[in-house]
Design goal:
mainly alpha, 189 residues, two-stranded parallel ribbon
Length: 189
């Protein structure tokens, strides 16, 4: 009993934040533990009340396996908590990225619309007036060089992004036509 009181007084569990708050007192023989319990029937309850668990060779392995299983469960629970936390963070970041992507896509669309309007005005209004001035001999022919745009934004292809589109239509891939197909389209039928 003196050994159990000494073990209980050390409070080994206080060194850890999360612990079952008990200590194991190993008795090296099942027969010795059985004799001690026969001599003092309250021994087991008294030691438990002091947070000391009596273990013999017959019960120690079961106790150790239980502790190992508990540690594994605790580690799995902590990992699951980390996965949950990372998942929430990823979802939040995906939401923010999606918002930025939508805003940028709208800006690109407006930019292309503005560019197309400018080119339309240049071709249908400004150059027409410039040609008239040249025809009247009031201006010399000016070489106007405008570089054609050959870049386009990448179309969305991931199902998650396409499904989230407001209008519900799938974007078409704009692939360059082979040269013979462009020539046949340019010629009137």
């Amino acid at each position: 009993m003196l050994t159990c009181e000494t073990l209980a007084a050390k409070s080994y569990w206080s060194a850890f934040a999360r612990t079952p708050q008990m200590v194991v007192c190993f008795v090296p023989s099942d027969a010795v533990l059985s004799a001690a319990l026969a001599a003092d029937p309250c021994l087991y309850d008294d030691t438990l009340s002091r947070r000391v668990v009596l273990a013999s060779p017959g019960t120690l392995m079961a106790l150790l396996r239980t502790v190992a299983f508990t540690w594994h469960q605790n580690a799995a629970a902590e990992n699951a908590q980390q996965v949950l936390s990372l998942s929430r963070e990823l979802y939040s970041r995906l939401t923010t990225t999606s918002t930025h992507l939508s805003r940028m896509g709208s800006s690109l669309r407006r930019t292309v619309e503005s560019y197309n309007a400018l080119v339309g005005t240049l071709e249908s209004r400004v150059l027409v007036t410039s040609r008239r001035l040249e025809d009247l001999g009031l201006a010399e022919r000016q070489s106007i060089q405008v570089a054609a745009l050959d870049l386009a934004p990448r179309p969305l292809s991931a199902a998650e992004l396409i499904d989230a589109m407001d209008d519900g239509r799938r974007p078409e891939l704009l692939l360059p036509l082979p040269e013979h197909a462009q020539d046949s389209e340019a010629r009137p039928a």
